[in-house]
Every structure is written in C-alpha cells, then in structure tokens.
Design goal:
- By secondary structure, the protein is of the alpha+beta class.
- It has 4 domains: 12-136, no CATH class; 149-230, ATP-grasp fold, A domain (Dna Ligase, domain 1); 233-327, D-amino Acid Aminotransferase, Chain A, domain 1 (2-Layer Sandwich); 342-418, 2-Layer Sandwich (Alpha-Beta Plaits).
- Helix content is 33%, strand content 27%.
- It is built from 13 helices and 18 strands.
- It has helices at residues 9-14, 46-50, 74-81, 96-106, 120-129, 138-145, 147-156, 170-182, 207-220, 276-295, 326-337, 359-370, 405-416, and strands at residues 19-22, 65-68, 89-92, 112-115, 132-133, 164-167, 188-191, 201-204, 226-230, 234-244, 249-259, 265-269, 300-309, 314-321, 343-353, 376-387, 392-402, 425-426.
- The strands form 3 sheets. Strands 10, 11, 12, 13, 14, 15, 16, 17 and 18 form a 9-stranded antiparallel sheet that branches. A 5-stranded parallel sheet has the order 3-2-1-4-5, with helices on one face.
- A hairpin with a 4-residue loop joins strand 16 (376-387) and strand 17.
- Helix 8 packs antiparallel against helix 9.
- It is globular.
- The two termini are 35 Å apart.
- Residues 151-350 form the ATP-grasp domain.
- Keywords: ATP-binding, Nucleotide-binding.
C-alpha cells in the first residue's frame, strides 16, 4: 500500500557522498518588494522558525556536516542520539569561515552544499570555498518559487487550474472578487508572488473581509499585481516531493498536508490512502510537471502543493516550492517506520510560559498527556525555544506513529488540546 508514498532510491543514488546541509528557512520572505495587504496570520518569532533547522539531523548521514545557526539543547541532542545510530558532524556558527574550516577538518573532499533554498549569496559562498552545488541558477530557483510563475506555467502547459485572475488595480480586484462570488465561491485567497506557510497571502472568507482588505490596498496603491484565486472546497491537500537531475524526474513521496483555516501548514499525514485512479492521475501529472521544470533549467528537490476538491477534481499545481521542505528532511525517518507502522502523522505546538522548562520536563509531560503504548508512539523531531526576560516560548514538532487508527487519533486530539505549561498559553 505504501509503494507510491516513499521511494527514496533515486535520491540516494544521486546523493553526493559528502553533503554540507544548511536550513536557511524563510529565505523567500524578503522577496516581495512591497507588503500589498495587511497580514492576518499571527506572526511567529523568527528564531523559533530558524530552529526548525534541527530537522536536518533526521536526513543527514554520519559523514555529512550539518551547519546550524542555533545551539542545540543538550538534553534534546542526547534524545536525538538515542533515535539515530550515528549523528552527522555538527557545526554551530554564523561565521562562514568557521564552517569552511570545520568542513576541511572533516574531509579532504569538497562537500556538495545543500541549503534549504539556493540564493545568490550561497552561490557566491560555494564558489569562494570550492563547494559543489546541485544547481546554481538562482534566477530559475526564484522563478519556480513564485506563485505567479506557478500559475502561468500551469496554465501554459495545460494543467487543471483553480478559478483565478491577476489584478493590476483596485477596480480589477473588485470586479474579479464579485465575479467569483457570483459563480458561487464564498471564500477566496489573495496572493503575492512569494511567501510560504501562510505568508504572502490572505484568506478572504467574507464580503466584510474583502472590503477591509481592498480598502487597505486602495488607500495605498493605484497599481499593483495581485493574484485572486477562488477557494475550492477541498477534500485532500496533497504534496509531492520531486527529485530532478540531468537525466530523469522521480517522484520520491506523496503525502497529505494538514492545513488550517488560514492556509497555514500545521502537519503532515505520511500514510494517506487514495483511490488508485486518482493516484495514477496524480503520479502522471507530477512527472509531467517535473519534465516541465527540467526544461526550465531546474534541478534538485521540489515540493508541489496540490488539491483534490470535494467533486474529486484534481488541481495538481497549486504552488511549487523550489527548495527542500519540512517533509523532505523527515523522509528517511518515515521510510524506516513504514515497515512497522500503518499510520504516521506530524503536528506542532507553540507554547508561551513565564516559567522555564527543560526538554526532559516537557517530554515527560507529553508522555503523561498523550499516553503512548507499545504500538503507538511519538518522537519529538524539533525542540525550538526562545528565552526572553519575562516570557519563554517553545515550538515543538512531534511525529506520531502507530497501528491503531483510533489510538493515534486520540493522541493527536490530546496533543491539540494540550495547555500544559503553568502560566502559559498554546497556539
């Protein structure tokens, strides 16, 4: 049943023997030149998001170097060691020279540099130190990550696309919204070119919300470019992991994203079940998309967001992430669990508290709250924290896996209701 979900062999065969990993997460947040509409997504502390770099520890091999920008909690590092036979080399620094020196001490061969997302600064860095790159065309990388390029590329190559329209002034925006309302769409999404995990877009769930957003835009801008798309009622939010090299396109994994009402990613179902015909169609469309991306000059990993609506209409190209994703980094760990566990899901929680808690404190409380058993377990795969003078914030990602659907669902429900930190709140 899992043959189409995880297939890492093409990546392993093409994977360089020595990799330098870096998770420069949220690199694309600065690419939108102007904030064209107010953000209604609760802002997250950047240091917490950056600490999701810890996920590199689950994909790196022992001979690799993982370049971290934030120190690891010692208790959490011991916890990760207990789950892996051997950890990679870890270099914690913001100084590129220190990283280069560390890499030279580890191996006489130059590494292949694999940042989360390639930028011109990292191309320059690789050239300076003689590091290899999977691909070095940063212009293609930026284009592939644009929601606007994605929309136009999908339309040009005949992929099924959701109802949508590019708008260049306030009147066009109003007309496009009214047309979508007239066609029965009660919810829309307004997008700028760049942004991930709910950033660079705003969900418009009512006419009042549209008036608020359009008024904000009209008072500040006469001309702009925005994409307004109808929100199709969704049965499944699929994600494909593609690996493209000079000779082939490979579908590494198909997972299902858990998305909240604001379009923000909150977790992944790594063991979804789909109708065979739908899966065959999806696989074919993803391989066709990969061929298109290769023709554009793109190589390496790409994550593709897709939806299946309530009428079982597949829209295969909603967004393209021309980079690694959180899903990518966990795939080797997921693959190791699949022979033993039927259900695998991830979630995260953010907690604020006036008290300071150790990793072992939080892990112990999770065990009490979630009540895992011999066949239904969890692993903490990111333990991020930000200690402030009057408030401590924790962002914790957990992987749940088990063989009883009801038990795993119960654990997920309990996790979603946790308010465990004294004097604190969860979000």
């Amino acid at each position: 049943m899992n043959d189409y979900r995880i297939h890492l062999e093409p990546f392993r065969m093409a994977r360089p023997p020595f990799v330098l990993w870096l998770a420069n997460i949220n690199e694309d947040q600065s690419w939108n030149e102007t904030a064209l509409f107010p953000s209604f997504v609760k802002s997250q502390r950047s240091t917490l998001i950056e600490q999701q770099e810890q996920q590199l520890l689950w994909i790196a091999e022992p001979q690799d170097v993982v370049w971290l920008l934030h120190p690891l909690d010692p208790q959490y590092l011991e916890y990760v060691k207990s789950h892996r036979d051997q950890l990679p080399h870890i270099c914690v620094t913001t100084d590129t020279g220190e990283v280069a020196d560390f890499v030279e001490r580890v191996s006489t061969e130059p590494p292949t540099f694999m940042p989360f997302m390639l930028t011109s600064a990292f191309v320059t860095l690789a050239e300076q130190y003689g590091w290899h790159l999977i691909h070095s065309n940063v212009n293609v990388v930026k284009q592939v990550n644009s929601k606007y390029v994605t929309r136009r590329l999908a339309e040009e190559h005949g992929f099924a696309i959701t109802k949508g329209k590019f708008c260049y002034n306030p009147q066009e925006l109003i007309e496009a919204y009214n047309q979508m309302r007239a066609e029965g769409f009660t919810k829309t999404v307004l997008k700028q070119a760049y942004g991930s995990s709910g950033k660079g877009l705003t969900i418009i769930e009512s006419e009042d919300k549209f008036r608020q957003v359009s008024s904000y835009i009209r008072k500040r801008f006469d001309r702009f470019e925005l994409l307004l798309e109808a929100w199709h009622p969704t049965k499944h939010s699929l994600n494909a992991q593609l690996w493209m090299d000079q000779n082939s396109v490979n579908l590494l994994a198909v997972t299902e994203q858990r998305i909240n009402d604001y379009g923000v990613y909150i977790g992944t179902n790594y063991t979804p079940h789909y109708d065979v015909a739908i899966m065959d169609e999806y696989r074919a469309e993803m391989l066709r998309l990969g061929a298109v991306l290769r023709q554009c000059g793109y190589a390496g990993i790409a994550g593709v967001d897709s939806i299946l609506d309530e009428q079982d209409h597949l829209y295969p190209v909603i967004e393209i992430n021309g980079r690694f994703t959180q899903v990518t980094y966990l795939l080797p760990f997921i693959e190791s669990l699949l022979p033993s566990y039927t259900y695998i899901e991830s979630r995260y929680i953010q907690m604020e508290t006036s008290d300071t808690h150790t990793f072992e404190d939080i892990q112990s409380r999770f065990k009490i709250e979630l009540q895992p058993d011999a066949d239904n377990l969890f692993t903490i795969y990111t333990f991020a924290f930000d200690h402030q003078p009057h408030m401590n914030v924790y962002r914790i990602f957990i992987l749940f896996y088990g063989n009883e659907a009801a038990k795993l669902s119960d654990m997920l429900d309990k996790f979603g209701r946790i308010t465990m930190l004294q004097g604190g709140v969860c979000s």
